[in-house]
């Protein structure tokens, strides 16, 4: 539970507290849960939640629990940078899925996390916890490592300035080992995540670059380790990343 709102806190900051009660692990919440997670008093939470629901930003289900409303989705779709990336990448990502029939991810970096903005999968794809809008630690994913490895050294050192949590036995958590990983990624042109986020999975990713050759996103194929063929995946993923780069650069 957060600290209760202070007397000088704005209405906007209290609304942000409420909206941050929802994420990939908490898609619904009762009014009591919202008050507890946000640190707001029940009367304040009740008043603001009611207004958010009336505006369509929250939706009240039949059981009384709240979830994000359709208006939030509409506002998210209006983000110009993300929309441009999605629209430019989608034809290539669809081709990549048709060629592999495995999970195809397209992600960006936001601070020390990667955010998935496109995910394509089908009945033969391995079941994963990833979804559009979900945030993951950058160092545990192929897309995250591809983006950071091709970033400036200043960005790399910033990413390594905080502890890297270990999510599996193969997660790289040592900064010096990660620097060596960056060098390998830049030399080969692709990044690997071998069970570093989810045991038994394999991901190969390549960066999408802007005009100044800085990474703006990354594309990856994720599949069971038992089905991984680096040579085939490398050719397919890097070809798609180059195609998306050329489309976005124009």
From TrEMBL:
Matching SUPFAM superfamilies: GAF domain-like, Winged helix' DNA-binding domain
Any one GO biological process: negative regulation of DNA-templated transcription
Keywords for the protein's UniProt record, in alphabetical order: DNA-binding, Transcription, Transcription regulation
GO molecular function, one term: DNA-binding transcription factor activity
Record-annotated IclR-ED domain positions: 71-250
Protein's recorded name: IclR family transcriptional regulator
A Pfam match: IclR_C
InterPro entries recorded: GAF-like_dom_sf, HTH_MetabolicPath_Reg, Tscrpt_reg_IclR_C, Tscrpt_reg_IclR_N, WH-like_DNA-bd_sf, WH_DNA-bd_sf
Residue ranges of every copy of the HTH iclR-type domain listed in the record: 9-70
